[in-house]
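Hey,

The postdoc asked me to send both predictions to you directly instead of through the lab channel. I've kept everything plain text so nothing gets mangled by the mail client. Protein one:
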Amino acid sequence: MGRVIAIANQKGGVGKTTTAINLGASLADQDMWTLVIDCDPQANTTSGLGVAKDPSRRHLYHSMLMDVPLGDLIIPGPIEGLHIIPSDKNLIGANLELINNPQREYILRQRIEPIRERFNYILLDCPPALDLLNLNGLVAADSVLIPIQSEYFALEGVSQLLDTLIRIRRSHNPKLAIEGILLTMFDERTNLSHQVRQDLRDFFGDQVFNTIIPRNVRLAEAPSHGKPVTMYDPECRGARSYEELAKEVMRNDQKGAGKGT
């Protein structure tokens, strides 16, 4: 049965979508059957994997609000073994339309259950907000991967998210683990990046991934071509970093779910 990993941080611009796209592609390159579910109404993961906008296409909204099985929404990704369930701007309506549903926090978990056994990994790209869509992702997940940018407010943001995870464990998902904290947009030329890395490791210890994602032009360019960076420029530093991250996630899986609780 596949592991479900939510990629989440309530702060925007920290590399969640970049990580969902490129970790998914790198896991598929390691012969892991991988599904990326775009849970963000901005649908950047959808377009970043080359899925063009199509008003007639069904997407995650149709499963969460209209009971369409997730299996009917799966689209093959740009590389073998990688699949996606697309999003659309209309998904934002789920935050209001599900509010009176007594099972509102568990909808995504219920939808995922019938397809879990089809994949080694299911990655959830969660929106940058502490809303009902984000909550559904965290309740559905076995673990959460937290990307954070190498900047001054990084520790404050991740501490707030960990407080949220504690509340979710108590109320909705007691088995939710920390897959790991991922340092992104790392600029090795600046003292600030190195200080943030050291502060994170001092505070969170082995919950921080060994892999660091650098600031990389090719990594930033790849989504505009609808490709993971491993297809766009497989030799660049960004591609190699996500390949290392995939291997680290797989090693963690062999040891047990996540880097810590």
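Protein two:
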Amino acid sequence: MLTLPNILTLSRIVAVPLLALLLWPGGGWAAQALAFALYCLMGLTDYFDGYVARARGAVSRLGIFLDPIADKIMVAAVILMLVFVRTIPGVHVVAGLIILMREIAVSGLREFLAGLQVSVPVSQLAKWKTGFQLVSLGALILGGALPQWPWVHNAGIVSLWAAAILTLVTGWDYLRTGLKHMD
């Protein structure tokens, strides 16, 4: 159970409260810079847990279960904190909400389909969605550390909307697949 890949996945979950604390208002640019570094480290552990599991033949049921949960917890916590501190302001909150709604809906759909022993593979477009999502949140965190470079924040907002649009498209694809199995 406590293989290196699972430890890496668990470390992401354990790091979420620290990340939220670093994003808390009043921490200044240094806390934002540390939050960005931690976010990047969490992203690296996400890559390496899967890589190590496959390379060592250590893919486990626990890892398969925990990895998407760790990803969703991290993304949800970052979106919530960035909305809270108004890094994601105004109408842009809708993009964050779209991402959160899709993550919850697709998780529920996957659980339902798993009960029917139907697997829904991750599409290439969903991988692009994840890429835009991770880049956008990273840029928005980094933008807090570099307020003198507003283009970093603006790039984060544009990427957030790109992720939200891809989220709608991929969410619809998953829903269409799921509806075929509902009677």
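Summary for protein two, as requested: Residues 20 and 159 are 21 Å apart (CA to CA).

Thanks,
C.
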